[in-house]
């Protein structure tokens, strides 16, 4: 058998330099890896942006488990059910708030389940355990001397559930007064409420924000520090006469705890707070860029006041747009995630969200052509290579002719894939991690195409070996992204279920490789279609 000389170098792209690692995030530890999604408002149905937050967090949680299987993972999500926005949404539907929240909350839970999101707890802020945590936390703030009763006047946005100052609003083209940051309408409110002495924490906040890992991506840091520099006392309750759907202020039943304070405390409730806070601090709070201020300014200060450590990291992702506008119910440009998963399957949607939306600083425009193209790539690359490597016609030829032609680029690509994925994941370069996985498969397909193992006089052993290793290693590394499809793929390759760990995602080269054992293994492979043709 003669290999065409071009194969050894042309099959594979040169291995790119490894990114800087932030190993501490995923390295083995006795502290659980604790990661959270924001809890979702139940005023409207879930859309693809919500699914993005869920999938991104799930990918981090699954990666942590793959990387350090002994380390406990706590991954929490849930629904944010209090406040004026929800109170009004329930009223608009003529339903009592509790019933309304239970119904919409279930839709978020169904969404997470359908998308194979492996949360360990789903919290609803209407639960009694959460009331207990909020009341206790409030009392800690009071004890710290950071809370006082005063009057507050400002521009309130029901949609954003927050006050804005005079400097943070403007009049839009239609004459409405809106928040500059979000464009949402605001109304002037003057009321008595409880306030939190946020400026007391300015210096500590700034030094927390200054740690390299606290805010990711770094491009968000200047926004956060500018917010910190100008903080004022924070209104942390609303008169019950205005907002009756929420947790009453302990000892002051005429006031309701501000919905953002209530909601942020969910991250402690899930640990069993106040009885336990085992697992604290959070390793990564995943949030959309629209809510970073609450997580990276208000929340760390509240935690400091309550005597708890601030989060290790707040990770902000950009938005999915449709026609370049942020998806929103009022604009009517939302993508229904359930319909998308019905058509493409949950895992191709997960892959699409991470591959196209995984470069966290930039918005991504949801686009059906791009989604279809991503699906075709999955089918043509993963599906096709799997079919080739398990084709009885090719497998039966293994071992008969063996070339010893070196494929150094390919060896390097296989042996370094795991480290490159880890490097990218440690820096939250999710799109790049997806590309390492995909490139391994694409290069293996090219090798097979070039070596034509189906032809009578050509070697099948080497192309099948490399293609198998590419599928096996990328199948292991793809588990956080497509947990079900990856295991389907590894099952089809007859990879032992106990050999799908981080330690197994390696390649030590061809020496000692037993072609007949692989031939026997692949002859046991299962038929199937990994990414079937879509119904039109
Ligand atoms: N309830 C608050 C969070 C409280 S956490 C203590 C909230 N809820 S939300 O339902 O409005 O948003 C939940 C998450 O979905 C946020 O991270 C938000 O950024 C994200 N997304 C909402 N629309 C989005 C897109 N169009 N694209 C990507 N994510 C977006 O805020």
From TrEMBL:
Annotated EC: 6.1.1.10
Biological classification of the source: Eukaryota, Fungi, Dikarya, Basidiomycota, Agaricomycotina
Organism of provenance: Papiliotrema laurentii (Cryptococcus laurentii)
Presence of keyword Ligase: yes
GO molecular function: ATP binding; methionine-tRNA ligase activity
Keywords: Aminoacyl-tRNA synthetase, ATP-binding, Ligase, Nucleotide-binding, Protein biosynthesis
A Pfam family it matches: tRNA-synt_1g
Identification of the protein by name: Methionine--tRNA ligase, mitochondrial
Protein family membership: Belongs to the class-I aminoacyl-tRNA synthetase family.
BP term (GO), one: methionyl-tRNA aminoacylation
